[in-house]
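Ticket #4471: structure output looks truncated?

Reporter: J.K.
Steps to reproduce: submitted the chain below (127 residues) through the standard prediction queue, then opened the result file.
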Amino acid sequence: MPYRAMLWTILTVALALIAVGMWIRAVEPQLQIAVNATQIAPATFPTTHPADANVRTVIRITMMCSFILICLLLVIGGFATFREWLRLQTTRPPKKPKKTQYVDIWKIAGERMKEKKPTDDPEGPLQ
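Returned output as attached by the reporter:
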């Protein structure tokens, strides 16, 4: 089945997109809390929270890695699909073998015997 690789690639990319989408929905509230904590004016919130900045950095790095992973899956999937498509398009059906021409060797031998003329040599070939 030539489409097997294409189907597995599409299924893998779809599952990766679903997983990343679910992860972003789960992380979005934490990201929003981290953004809000860093946006508060210093007069109303005098202490700094380096933990929130660290969480925000970790979330950004993780989201960037997820984005790169999805892009790689899409690019590799595209190349795999294109490769299978080319293989399918360039594969030609095998040529039908030519039918064997059988030769009647007895007929050919008879024709050769008719073509042979007796020689005028009185002694003949064996004498």
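Triage note (M.O.): checked the attachment and the full token line is present. The chain has a mean pLDDT of 76.
Status: closed, working as intended.
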